[in-house]
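REQUEST FORM: STRUCTURE PREDICTION
Request ID: SP-0412
Submitted by: Lab K.M.
Chain count: 1
Length (residues): 186
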Amino acid sequence: LARNLEEYALLRRLSMGKRTQLDYSLYTMNREAQEFFRSKGVAGMTAPVELNHRELGTLDNHDVELIIYGYQVLMVSAQCSRKNTSFCDRKKAVLTLKDRKNACFTVQCHCDFCYNLLYNSVPLGLLKERDEAEELGFSGVRLQFTLEDAKEAKSVLKMFAKAYGEKRVIQQSRIFTHGHFHRGVE
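STATUS: Completed
RESULT:
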């Protein structure tokens, strides 16, 4: 899974380009970009999280996977969140930030490289959108676990396996965001 051009270039240099899946952070937001990477022989791509259902429908999705679950990164910060809130001992840590509405946002501090990942307070979950997602012809779907413990990951996996694998209607007991799936980039 290549998340940036440097990783992709390294994988190509290591003769692994044909086994490389591009993550959503690599630009594939139009057919020209998709064709460029296909001409380089990538194994597949990940649908851009910024595009809505209609925009995703304009792409060629035969080798593209769609992220249907996961906490999405809202921001990458090069400032030291730990130093700004207390002190930094240059060890990985997890912080929680609260906004004015008391929503909790997880911050993963990667002090070895001095950057932070700020995650949305609510995970993306395209349960109700299953039929719409399947109409788009994606080659697969991805559940992206980052902040969940084993019990939560197992529960989420079962829920999405019933919806996408068994095609069963699921009563949604959790709160999910639908990301840009309906609204797109504003």
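NOTES: The beta strands are 45-46, 64-70, 73-77, 93-98, 104-110, 115-119, 124-125, 140-144.
Reviewed by: T.R.
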